[in-house]
């Protein structure tokens, strides 16, 4: 998907021209941009099998992604936000994992913070969910899959009707999608390689206003917690309390943060989240009652 990211889109498409796996189509799903996105797409028609799909403005990436899912002709669908880009072997290595039996493949991404950057040290990290309890692992440990790393079997994502277009899930619709794939029994495989770049240098496709809020975390929990075993549900609820406490802290809502962090400490959250909650609660208390 893209929205008024013409120059970032050019960088993204250049990375597709360099792929070692060459059998793929490109669908640029535009959320009614007002810049020169169409001109940038035209620049790549000689090198890529590329289509520009334009739709009415939705205000989030879910509907443009779903339009791409509907139009895609291949057996696999790879997602790439227009401000991110891939390393040259990304598709080749992902295809190898899919052909070994995976339904959905993903990996770490390098975190890019400035144009012309040549050294990358920080990653957007992923993890391999437990194959025996994928849904519970994703609910307890959080979103394992950086979206611009994901390749999924077309039949799997179409079976769950793609990404939710519920406005209440904007910025967490990808997490909700992975959870629904897990509920369906899809096989998740993580590649050990870091095969792409996540842009954090400003102007991201998901602006600050669209980032996860406590309400969004709670909505995801309510949608999926009923499928968990009681013990896993308690652990997931404890992690939810920590995430909500952290969001409230970052927004300066100290009273709400304190309430959620205490719920985490008194609930069933795993030990690592209790330690995080305790450390954050100390920070909250120091701000609430500063030492003079």
Automatic annotation (TrEMBL):
Pfam family, one: Glycos_transf_2
SUPFAM superfamilies associated with the record: Nucleotide-diphospho-sugar transferases
A GO MF term: hexosyltransferase activity
Xref: InterPro entries: Glyco_trans_2-like, Nucleotide-diphossugar_trans
Residues annotated as domain Glycosyltransferase 2-like: 1-117
Protein name, UniProt field: Glycosyltransferase 2-like domain-containing protein
Native species: marine metagenome
